[in-house]
Amino acid sequence: MYIGVDVGGTYTDAVLLEKNQIKASAKAPSGKNLLSSILEAIDKVLQGVDPGRLKRIVFSTTMITNLIAERKYDPVALLLIPGPGLSYTYYQFNTFTRILTGTIDYRGRETVSLKEREVEAALDEIADQGFKKVCVIGKFSPRNTSHEKRLAMLVKEKYPDWEVELGHLAGGQLNFPRRVVTTYLTAATRESFHHFLNLVRQSLAERQITAEALILKADGGTLPMENSDKIPVETIFSGPAASTLGALALTSPGETAVIADIGGTTTDLALILNGQPLLSAKGARIEGQLTQVRTLAVKSVPIGGDSVLERMGNEIIIHGKRMGPAYCMGGPVPTPTDALRVLGLTTLGDQNRAAEAMAILGERNGSRVIAEKILNLVVDGISSQINKMFQEWELEPAYRVWEILQKRKVRPSTVVGVGGGANGLVDRIAEKLGCRSIIPPYAAVANAVGAAVAKTTLQLSLRADTERGSYLLQEEGFEGKIDSKQFNEKQALDILRERLIRMAARHGLDVKPEQLEVTHQEVFNMVRDWQTKGRLIDITVQTPRGITGRIEAGGQEG
Predict the structure, then answer these.
(1) Number of domains making up the chain
(2) Residue pLDDT, tens place only, 7-35
(3) Backbone φ and ψ of 521, nearest 5°
(4) This prediction's pTM
């Protein structure tokens, strides 16, 4: 038996899955006491079930996404060591930033040392600004970590209570600007994510659940809980990934469709082509800046069933924030859910309070008139974002291949609606886009379904230096010898495939070499005196992502 739990900003959903059938599903409001919400959802689906029968439990969450979207985190300062090259004016990271002297070259050699007096002066400035979280990022730190480690030591000596995040640990790839953003977001979210993980651990302990516990990543793969604590930013689009996998499991094989997950706080958009979620080739883009986080090509739009509505003059404005449940459910302000209730498109909440919410917005012609206006605003807003998202999806390599196979320029013509707000909105969104709509069974808990059916994934990274004659398997901590300076990427991949398949077997996974996915590959030729002296090879492979199976009929919706 598997359990999937999705901790959203509005509801915490859970499903109990056995042999591709949903045995139970549940929704619990995500209140201030998140532990109670998690326990309530788990208790509902585990009613009468021995926890000892559980094989694994997978959590997804929009907590990190919402935290960043609403900027609900402590300020973070940046200490950058970019060395020579791109003008410093290029680096605009929208936070307090100091550039420090020091250079590690592409080969990983120190060519200019740090100036410790300069570091001390920068720390004093940061302290004066009131920061207590600092990121330290060097351009070639994945090749030589000494500058970052020395800076971290200097920070801790002077300010022991500060939190310091190191670039080479947050993002192991060379792209410097993306590593800076990734490290910044890691520092911003680490404390909150650690708190979330502690709540999860406490809930499992209280219910005596000893099954394997995993966290869903932004690319639809999974992480063991202890590993996710080190890289919280990997879960930034965990919620949208869950709804995508859920829609995949709840629809026909080979489906091509836009996925619209309409929740209380946001609407998450994704695309599946011939039954495969579209992956972003560039990584997660947060507030216009790219990161090193591998993700599905998704977007979170700040429009949901509980979005705040306000009348300004003759216009109704939808604000991209949530102040609580809908007015008809006891909330403080009118929301789109109130409009749905007035029009009879949902049974949530109290009809009279929904009509009262419309009256607050000052419509003289009756609550149904203004409710229709509100729904049109929501539908226009989400449809517009889907059209904008298509401009990004159409640039993805996988989309171009799909389009070539269609032999004509065409867009997917189906919108799959999931999430609590899908009913009443998705049909209208599909009509606006000229598409057909599908709302599958269990749409309201599709995120939890996606978490439950997500395949367990494992990854292994190799870093080889042919001149030094050695390689390192990072996750295993194993260092091996390279016998030949002709060692190449194919040989590195052979080592990785063999070791990862053995690792997968130890976890009970049957994986074939051809199923392994190369998630990162980078090669540097080391040239001196006009001759290639060696190569630096960095490769990461992962067991296949995807779903364990499609949901069959059976069970009861909660």
Answers:
(1) 3
(2) 988 889 999 999 889 999 999 988 889 99
(3) -150, 125
(4) 0.86
